[in-house]
Amino acid sequence: MTDKGVEAFLSCAMDPPSHLDVALAMERLRKLGAVASDGSKESLTPLGQCLARLPLDPAMAKMLIMGSVLQCLDPVLTAAACSSSRELFYTPLGMRKEQHSVKKSFSELSDTMASVEAYDEFRYILKEHGWAEAREWASANFVSIHALNSVDSVRWQLINELKSLGLVPQSDLIKSRGRKKEFQNGASVNRNASIDSLVTAVWAVGNPDNLAARRKLGNFGTLRSKTENHAGLHPSAVAFHRKPPKERKVNLPSWFFYREMVLSSQVFLRGCTALEPEQVLLFGGYGLETSESHESGRSKRVLDDWITIEGRCNDTLDALSRARSEIDVALDTKIMNPRRPLPESQQTIIDAVCDCFSV
After folding, report:
1. What pLDDT, in 10s, does the model give residues 73-92?
2. I need a labelling partner for 105 at 20 to 30 A (CA). Which of 29, 51, 81, 323 fits?
3. Are 225 and 231 in contact (CB under 8 A)?
4. Confidence of residue 215 (pLDDT cuts 50, 70, 90)
5. Taking a C-beta distance cutoff of 8 angstroms, is the pair 225, 261 a contact?
6. Which stretch of 4-8, 10-14, 43-47 has the lowest confidence by average pLDDT?
């Protein structure tokens, strides 16, 4: 990267960033596996070189590569494009409840899934019925045409970059003369794109710092994150509940990832997606830190020193932990040889993980 080290290099700028900002940024890149340090010098890893080619936040870029490895790229790509564009749903004055109801009709547990489903529905209507009907549908469902066009533009750019990296084969794309690339039906990188639970788990890769768990004690709806002990879902979130559901059998999600944290009357989390503990253990955070077993029969795994996943079956937690390691190995293999298929042994493991989500 530089012979002097990143911090020394940036200190020569006319308006250099603070030492703390540089240190935090470099630490995040190290945890992502994008940078390796040798004393005072840093260098990009093969993963880092690949992430640098994608015009996204490094974690979001890694999420795209993970989507390619797990062959569920299309919804992962749309989610990345939505994160880089304006909010897909708009709220007319005095119609907040109506907008929330429509948004919830696309997904009751994920704001990201609601946006992805709305985008896909709009593209389908546009293709099958034409512009007039698609525009009418967007207006009726509080979906911004400008935001949809922005998502389209970002998607095309990302598809072209992934193609140039070798992560999307030419055979998976519809032939076109311009830069407006789209996937063929039956594209190999989308073989598992219809498995929603797999897709939402992969989305967590793009938000390693933005996880929140429902508190077992305290007021209803209180969540804890890495930096906040008393946060809550924003009322605009599709998973928001003002009161506990009347049906006692309803199990509320115990984990979420969120797009942003805002402070108003309290700390709120916006752009939330519900996760199961197994999804968090496989794809959440930066990496597995410790494993513990208790005499009570419960075992736990700790990610990033604060994310705790507990279970009664230690063998299950071990299997998930090993699967996470194997997925990381497959990711590294893909980075080193992006145009080649994974070795059969690694592809078998990836297929087994995907099959577990499809049950």
Report:
1. 999 999 999 999 999 999 99
2. 81
3. yes
4. confident
5. yes
6. 4-8
Q: Are 194 and 187 in contact (CB under 8 A)?
A: no
Put simply, whether the predicted model's pTM sits higher than 0.85 gets the answer yes
Asked whether the beta carbons of 327 and 304 are under 8 A apart, the reply is no
Which string of b and e fits 80-98 if b means at least 16 CB within 10 Å?
bbbbbbeebbeeeeeeeee
Span 254-279, pLDDT tens digits: 999 999 999 988 999 999 999 999 99
Q: Give the number of other CB atoms < 10 A from CB of residue 123.
A: 16
CA-nearest of 49, 112, 110 to 77 is: 112
Residue 305 phi/psi, 5-degree rounding, is 70, 5
Q: How far apart are CA 281 and CA 323, in angstroms?
A: 10
CA–CA dist 88, 270 (Å, integer): 14
For residues 16 and 10, the answer to whether their CB atoms sit within 8 Å is yes
In the predicted structure, residue 248 carries a pLDDT above the cut 90:
no
DSSP 3: T
Nearest alpha carbon to residue 334 among 67, 155, 54, 56: 67
Collapse the DSSP code of 267 into the 3-class scheme (helix H, G, I; strand E, B; otherwise coil) and give the result: strand
CA–CA dist 79, 76 (Å, integer): 5
Read out DSSP for 147-204? Answer: HHHHHHHHHHHHHHHHHHHTSS-GGGB---SSS---BPTT-GGGTTTT-HHHHHHHHG
The tokens for 248 are 């006692």
Instruction: Decide if 114 contacts 102 (C-beta within 8 A).
Output: no
